[in-house]
Amino acid sequence: MNIYALSSGRGPSGIAIIRLSGKDALNISELITQKKNLKSKEINLCKFYNPSNNTLIDEGLLLSFPCPNSFTGEDLVEFHIHGSNAVISYFLKVLSEQDNCRLAEAGEFTKIAFQNNKVDLIEAESIGDLIHSETELQRLQALKLVQGNASKYYNELREKLIKSLAYIEAKIDFAEDDLPESVLKEVQNSIREVYTDIKKILKSHDIGEKIRDGFKVSIVGEVNAGKSSLLNLLSKRDAAIVSAEKGTTRDVIEVYLNIDGYPVILADTAGIRNSENEIEKKGISLAINKSKESDLNLIMIDNSSKSIDPKIKNLINENCIVVLNKSDVDSKQNHNFKNVEIVLISVKNNQNITQLITKIKKNLSSKFTTSNTVLVTRERHRVKLIDCLKEIDNFLKKDQNKDIEMAAEDLRLATRHLGSIVGKVDVEEILGSIFKDFCIGK
User: Fold this and answer.
1) Is 185 exposed, middle or buried (0-12, 13-18, 19+ CB in 10 A)?
2) pTM above 0.85, yes or no
3) Residues 35-51: pLDDT tens digits?
4) Fold (topology level) of 2-104
5) To 5 degrees, how large is the angle CA 259–CA 286–CA 377?
6) What pairing do the DSSP bridges indicate for beta strands 76-83 and 341-344?
7) Domain 215-367 grouped into CATH 3.40.50.300
8) Which CATH architecture has domain 146-204+375-427?
């Protein structure tokens, strides 16, 4: 079956790209262009026709990628046409009328590329991450994965386990020929090295996932301190209702922001105070719980206030930045706290907001800096690494002389868990969950 899809964004646009992949892709392209011997190493300037009635569809470019030297590993053709919705719709209709031709499912081009060993699972997932990246940090992380850095590292760890397993199985198969003690010791050391390396990766697993999904930053603090106004200012839209009436915010309001290259999920919360209103009390409870889940808290305080609620003081720690607002009312810093970042701002006058953004970025950067070149970006990877560690741990706990066969099975399972991250084993059951979030045409 041949698959086709619009791989560029919907029109209107100057150019649209339609992809066609499959064993008949080159034949279908010859029908549509009415040209034989289309060149694969050159750009072909063509007119495109409806084969059923010879109606001219458009004029544009055709790029031909014969198998196996294509993204999918099959014959693949790209039609570069004008990006009007009318041209795109008609061209897709013409393709749908060709024999054994259907619209591609989401991520199907990349899925076929994986099945034809053009990319591994990590590279396939990172293509999706690169497409959906919105910040510089996300782009750089996805690009490293696309280039195969993580895949190479996991494959090296897996090769170490396979080599060690080969020695263990040799000991089982040729029990009468004792392996030298030095070889067995080398096996043990190699497996412990893998164990240590995986431990290091898992220790910093939060970093990759947070870069991919966003760092959680919450604005918590006094009522009417300007929390909602700050959210609106940073998000550059009226995401939260702002009112002089105290207790306006009752629920948690979240917006996704790109703060100087850092993906941030910024949450506005209810002002913390003593209240008899049941709904407001619920909102205050949500605010306190949200602060506990966050990677960073912005503790918002009215710089002109005479005293600070003890509940708010309890939230001030090394995991926060104290934001003293309303410097337009009183320009002198009236509150001080030890060993805590403080910034005096005015949301109303947009004063020192750049300084606040710099402090947010610096705080997140200091918390989520790692020497590891490989970061865990998905829950699937983390679970498989944990499972691998468990099996290696089981192996190391066993008596290699008495329980050699059981120990070998532990090592076999560890190798399988590690291999499934990059797709070195049967992974059909997880393909659907990986490719379902891809856009059509990729």
Assistant:
1) exposed
2) no
3) 988 888 889 999 999 99
4) Gyrase A; domain 2 (3.30.1360)
5) 45
6) unpaired
7) yes
8) Up-down Bundle (1.20)
